[in-house]
Design a protein that fits this description.
By secondary structure, the protein is an alpha/beta fold. It has one domain: Alpha-Beta Complex (Maf protein), CATH 3.90.950.10. The protein is built from five helices and seven strands, in the order βαβαβαββββαα.
């Protein structure tokens, strides 16, 4: 099966490829396919945005299946923020990682160490022609660091501490991160949903 990954985020595409490569004959990004489709992410939840992206891109391309995800950081002390606004957390800026991280650090400055719990959340939607859309979620729990640690990963990874490994996401190599991440957990849930549906990836 040839799968189109409905994302223009090169880091996300790389992670999805690394995780799903054993299960598909070919994984193609929108850039690889020569597609320039920008879906407005105006949903109130990760699930709404993932389904919207997958279905809209499927309607505009010639592929049999489209995979889309929406993900973000949810911080308990910030009432779930930045959530679906993770990429545009810093007002007036889109995908400005340094400004997003600076705002996070500023808002969390006075939060005590025992109140800094957070989760990365990912919703993955698989849209297929003539079949119902499958959408599942995965999450990964940790806490927010006061200072950046590590140089791997992207986005909020340097500030997201994963207690089980004693490291931030940015201190993990890609293979390790992709074995425990929110995206990995969502894609694993998708595999299980397909198995229960009687379809093998």
């Amino acid at each position: 099966m040839k799968l189109l990954i409905a994302s223009n985020n090169a880091n996300k595409v790389l992670e999805i490829r690394q995780i799903l490569a054993p299960h598909f004959d070919e994984l193609v990004s929108m850039r690889d396919a020569g597609l320039d489709i920008d879906v407005v992410e105006d949903g109130e939840t990760f699930v709404e945005n993932a389904i919207k992206k997958a279905t809209e891109v499927l309607a505009m391309c010639g592929y049999d299946a489209v995979l889309a995800d929406d993900s973000g950081l949810c911080v308990d002390a910030l009432n779930g923020e930045p959530g679906v606004r993770s990429a545009r957390f810093a007002e007036g800026f889109e995908h400005d990682v340094p400004k997003n991280n600076a705002k996070l650090v500023s808002l969390m400055r006075d939060v005590p160490d025992d109140k800094r719990q957070a989760s990365f959340v990912c919703a993955v939607a698989l849209a297929r022609r003539g079949r119902p859309v499958l959408c599942v979620q995965g999450s990964c729990s940790g806490r927010i660091l006061r200072e950046a640690r590590g140089s791997n990963g992207f986005g909020y990874d340097p500030y997201f501490y994963f207690p089980e490994f004693g490291k931030s996401f940015a201190e993990l190599d890609s293979v390790t991160k992709n074995s425990i991440s929110h995206r990995h957990n969502a894609l694993s849930a998708l595999e299980e949903a397909l198995r229960l549906e009687g379809e093998k990836l």
